[in-house]
Structures are given as structure tokens and as C-alpha cells.
């Protein structure tokens, strides 16, 4: 299914009109119409708002082959948190790690619960190591400046 089809299906499954979805997301009805009816792909910020309002993952909306609506919600949140804390480069690194690790585990002997525990641990280790690197390699004068602006 395409992005447009998934948005419309998820919206209807929640018994929402385009007007109601517009109110939930802050996206104009006209824009929502173009996303659903014309297949226009929105900016990433709007994709995130739509995914959150419809309680589906961004990955589900953007990957035509993805059929599980909620499978990647935690990973999407993790990537968003990393982006907030470490910027776009950190988010790209985190996506790459999750992607490579997912490929490593594909078709393996682990059940879904064990894979989830593994991914949670991996995400925690990544955040801890990024924070440790920031503390070790960022000059103190810049660390203080960054912490004041937060």
C-alpha cells in the first residue's frame, strides 16, 4: 500500500474525518486532502504528526511493503530522541545501527520478545556511548553553553 492509502485507511479505522485529523495534527485539511487523494508526500515533520495522531509508525507510513502498523513506533521515537539530543548525524547513525542489526537478526532463532529486548539494550548502549563521547571530546566551554541553551 502507498502512503496515501495507509493514511486514509488508518484515519478511517479510527473513525476520523479529514477535519478531525487536521485538528489533531495542526495540518490543514487541504494538505491532508493532497496527501490522501493526490499521493503527495509531506515534509518529515508532518509525517511524524500524522503517524502520532493515527497511532502508527512513520516506518509503516513510508515503507510501501511494511504491513505492521505499530512495529516500529518505539524505534521511531528512539530516532527522534537521538535527533533531539545529537542532531541529524546522530539520528542517521542510530538508523544505520538499527538497520544493520535488524538484518543481522532477520530469520534468526530469536523470538520477537527476545529481539525487542536486544533492540532496547542496543538503543540504551548507543545513547550512553554518545553521551560519554560528548563529555569526553567536547571542550568544557562548549558543553556548558549547550547545557544552558536546553
From TrEMBL:
Domain of life of the source: Bacteria
A UniProt-annotated Pfam family: HTH_3
TM stretches of this protein: none
Entry keyword set: DNA-binding
CDD domains recorded: HTH_XRE
InterPro entries: Cro/C1-type_HTH (IPR001387), Lambda_DNA-bd_dom_sf (IPR010982)
SMART domains: HTH_XRE
Domain HTH cro/C1-type positions: 7-61
One Gene Ontology MF term: DNA binding
Signal peptide: none
Name of the protein described by the UniProt record: DNA-binding protein
Species annotation: Ruthenibacterium lactatiformans
